[in-house]
Amino acid sequence: MRKPTWFQALMAGALAVFLTVAGCQSANRSATPAPSSAVSEKRYKERTVRQDAEATEQLGRQQSIQDARSFVRNAATRDPANVLQPFLAAHPEIAAAIWIPGDGQPAHVEGKADILQGKPADKHCQAARQALREGRSHASDIYSIDGHPYFIIAEPVQNTRGKGLILAVSAITVQQVEQLQRKNLRLIPYPAEGRYRIESVKPNTTKDTTVRTGEDNQNASHYAVDEVVVKFRRPLTNRELLQIRKELDMTVVRQIRQTYLFRSKKHRAETLIAYFKKWNPVYVEPHYLYLTNATKPLNDTEMTGIIPNDTLYSKYQWNLPQIETELGWKWNKGSQDMIVAVIDTGVQSDHPDLEGRLVPGINLVDDSQPPEDDVGHGTHVAGIIAAQVNNHEGVAGMTWFTKIMPIKSLDSTGAGSTYAVAQGVIWAADHGADIINMSLGNYAEAQFLHEAIQYAHQKGVLIIAASGNDNTDRPGYPAAYPEVLAVAATDPGGDRAAYSNYGEYIDVAAPGTSIASTYPGSQYAALSGTSMACPHVAALASLVRAANPKLTNEEVMDVLRKSAKDLGEKGKDIYYGYGQIDVRNALEMAVGTSDSRVPNLQSLFLRLGKALRQLADKTAT
Known about the structure:
There is one protein chain. This protein has 17 helices and 23 strands. It is globular. Helices cover about 35% and strands about 20% of the residues. With about 625 residues, it is α/β, with parallel strands linked by helices. The protein folds into 3 domains: about 15-25 and about 195-215 and about 330-620, Rossmann fold (3-Layer(aba) Sandwich), CATH 3.40.50; about 55-175, PAS domain (Beta-Lactamase), CATH 3.30.450; about 220-290, Peptidase S8 propeptide/proteinase inhibitor I9 (Alpha-Beta Plaits), CATH 3.30.70. Strand 2 and strand 3 form a beta hairpin. Strands 14-15-13-17-19-20-21 form a 7-stranded parallel β-sheet, sandwiched between helices. Strands 2, 3, 4, 5, 6 and 7 form a 6-stranded antiparallel β-sheet that branches. Strands 10-11-9-12 form a 4-stranded antiparallel β-sheet. Helix 12 (about 420-430) packs parallel to helix 13.
């Protein structure tokens, strides 16, 4: 390591590095998307904040309802009153709980009983009790006590009137997300005046990226006994769907064009297959959840992909199907040996959806403390990559086995110095990270950080960074360094997100708008930005490395570029780079190039050209 050079840079002063979270804007993919005006940009940002807050509220409600239903399902096998306290301890978002045993027996209360009393809680509690008397579920609107938001849900014991569970759930996560996004989308000054010295640089500096490789080839199969996949000869009408729901009590879990995944509450797959054969479909088959390591392309009957059972997946995670993750999982699901370092605000170490997915990390803000997340950003990024998949809980990450190395370089304001970030890069490279995710950035070019990145790159680490959220062509760093893969953001329509930075240095794009993921307090939230797009690419890189360990980092980078779905102008452009990442294409290409060891001259020339442009810009400055 070249410490003298680093310390010289340090003596020059550490520059602030800020989180990059972008909003969403619909752009025309067939034409060059015009940067929006300041007024329209602010309007889109405000809309994005509202969308993320609303989605976060729905995520919280849905997960709390699932938790309540799980509790009452087990009421017959244990004394609910005795397990209320540990239930609340395991779900810190639940402020109070009432178990109503029915038959005139007294209710059992745990938690903060005062938030269930007085105005305006009384009317919501009365409505919840009335719902239990009628044997139905209930969810209230959000109400406030001393400025803290709550909502109440009630869940009855099945086929039993007057018996069940009432929960008062904190909705503070919604406020936290709104405040976080207003900062991250620069709707308010961020960071606070005087907290850091901020430097700017001239636009049009260029950048190239390099990547790292690895391997696994884990196999896993699962057969869903209550689900079938049916491809009809045309999409079903609403009347036909209603007929199916009535006849077999089924729900549509997912739909891709005329292919449907159905789940029944009463019937097994054999019955469902026999039923759908009468509809003369293209095919009907069981829902096999499995991965083979075959190197042949998927045929038409395999186009359904792997759809996980995570409770929030089907309704809220639009992002993974859009980039063909479900089909990609049939090629590879990742490796337990693969480590992605998340240099960020830390990660909640005991989040239930990240259980078993973290390896030791470091807190570079306060080395006496573990790298816990006191902002929310880092936990969200980690979940996009590695939240447990197919565990009947929360969200699904992009990888089934990849590990996360939490490195806390950003403080409780969501900002940190160049030194802390550079130190995180070096620490990650020295402690076994295969990939580094950097959902952060600044417009100041710091040599200290660049040398740390070059050090990690020379050790074979793939470094991926978010481009920024200011709808500008001014290069952001570290994304614009030649050794870093720069990521732009897209929205649910596959268009450029409104505030995603652009320029010649952009390599690829990935979903970044209203992305559901893990959040501190064992919660879930929806956030938007290139910060959310970046971990999609980091996750895909870990899958590519697992699929083919023979590829060098440069070759993995080339796979990610060549396999991307071209958007915008034909070929590489300043808004999408080479296009939006495609998981299936990337893994198919990685496996197909397993025996190719010929150096990629195109990749080398691209890196050289970008480095020369960067040097020219610095000389002009």
